[in-house]
Each structure stands twice: as structure tokens, then as C-alpha cells.
Amino acid sequence: PEKGFSTASLGKGREMPYEPTIKKNPRQLAIEQHFHTAHAISLFYDIDDKVELMDLSSSKTFRRRKRAKIFCTKRTWDQRAETGYMAPIEDAFHEEIDNIKIFSERNHEAISKYCLLWRKRHYHHLNNPADVVLNGVSGSGLTKEQEEILESKNCSFVREGGVMASRFSTGLQIQIALDSDWHTCSHFKWGLLEAQEGEFIVADGYGNWPFMPIAPKLAFMAEVPDQKINRQQLAELNNESIASAVEYYFARKISKCPVT
């Protein structure tokens, strides 16, 4: 048969379990993966090094650290993606949020690339794709240990029946999307919004809305000038963040975040 891709009937949506590693994870493969980085979350820490989080499934609030499971997806993309092309995008974005520059000196491209990366990772986290079957491709017959050695060296593999674990195809799909969809945000110039009264809420993802809170009183928003915003303007933005959230939203202290 002609080679191609088809979806294996191995699971559906968020119900599909992740693939665990060998006991004790000797190759240190990434299991808990942040679609929005742990460092970015930590910039909202309170004095106890936690953020306050609203879990939308239970409508309850919790205080959590940046590596809490709710902030993570489990092996949704492969090790090559995690430590390869994603890491430089994250590092460049962290430079922008750790060292705020004036508008003319800001690395707008770095912010745009991270905005797109966050968007794509969150999408795949929510959709949790099934494994892929490569028609006309035989399996490699590797042991679990051999598979993990290969993945730790940024390689992929195919199992019996031509099955490729979804994390490999997802890692590739995100990488391709960063190129194919770059035109949607490559032109963005990011303004810095500073809240004069109250604090920002952060959604788990923002879809196509080019908006990213980066500290309790600071947010980047595309195509606006740097400016201070009043309580009413902040409340409107917080409303949009809550509307954008799928599983949770967080802040340093939710009660300090005005909404309308």
C-alpha cells in the first residue's frame, strides 16, 4: 500500500493516557511538559513561592507552585522538541520578561515566536492526539530501553504495525506549524501594559488573541503602544482572560484582580 498517515484507534481526546518511561526514568526524558513555561509562571509567585489558581472543573481555588501537574501536559511532544527547537524560543522570551526593554529595543520577534509556541503546545495538550500508523512501514522491533536511548538522542522510531507514538508526530507538527503559521504574528509589535491599580489574571491559553500577562502588573499586547491602564481597563482584560481559559486561570492573588 501507498505510504501515508492514518490515526490509530488507541484513544480519544484527553482520555488517552501518556506513555510512561522505564522505572526511575534513567534517560531523564521529559514527562511533565509545560505548555506555558514554569519560569513565566514563577513571575507571579507570592511570598510563599506559589500562585493562586482557579480550577474550572471544580470551581475551586488552590495555591500551587510552578511545577504542579495542572500546569503540565504529559509527554505530548517528544524529547527532540522539548530540548531542541523549543528551548531557544523559551530562552529568548525569558530574556524579554526578565529584562524589560523600551519599545524600540524590545525583541518583538522573540515574543511573537513564544506566543505562537504557547498557542500550539496548548492546542495539542487539549486535543491529545492518538498514535499514528505509517502505512507500508514495518516496525523496528526495539526494546523499551533501546527506544528510550534513541529518544534521548533526539531520534524517533516506529513500532510493530507501523505505529509511531503520537509525541513524535506532535513534536514535528508543532515545528512545522511554527513555520507555516509564522505569518500570522511575524509582524506584531508588542506594547507593554502596566496596571496602575489591581493585578492581571493569566489564562492557561489565549488561542489567537495576542495577549500575555508577564507579571502581576505587566502584560504584553500586540499592536498597542506602551501605556498605563486604569482599573476598568484592567478589569476588561481580566474578563477576557477568564473567557479564554479552558482548564484554569491563575494570578498572584485572584482577589486583587478586578473583573467587571
Structure characterization notes:
There is one protein chain. The chain has 260 residues and is of the alpha+beta class. It contains seven helices and 13 strands. The radius of gyration is 20 Å and the shape is globular. The N terminus is likely disordered.
Measured as a percent range, the helix fraction is 25-40%
Could you give the order of the helices and strands? EEHEEEHHHEHEHEEEEEHE
Measured distance between first and last alpha carbons: 59 Å
Structural class: alpha+beta
Q: Quickly count the helices.
A: 7
Large-scale geometry: globular
Mean pLDDT: 91
Characteristic terms for this protein:
single chain; 260 residues; alpha+beta; four-stranded antiparallel sheet; four-stranded mixed sheet; 7 helices; globular; disordered N terminus
Provide a brief overview of the structure.
With 260 residues, the chain is α+β, with helices and mostly antiparallel strands. Helices cover 31% and strands 19% of the residues. The chain has helices at 38-42, 79-83, 86-98, 108-127, 144-152, 166-180, 231-244; strands at residues 5-7, 32-34, 51-55, 60-64, 72-74, 132-134, 163-164, 190-195, 202-203, 211-215, 218-222, 227-229, 248-251.
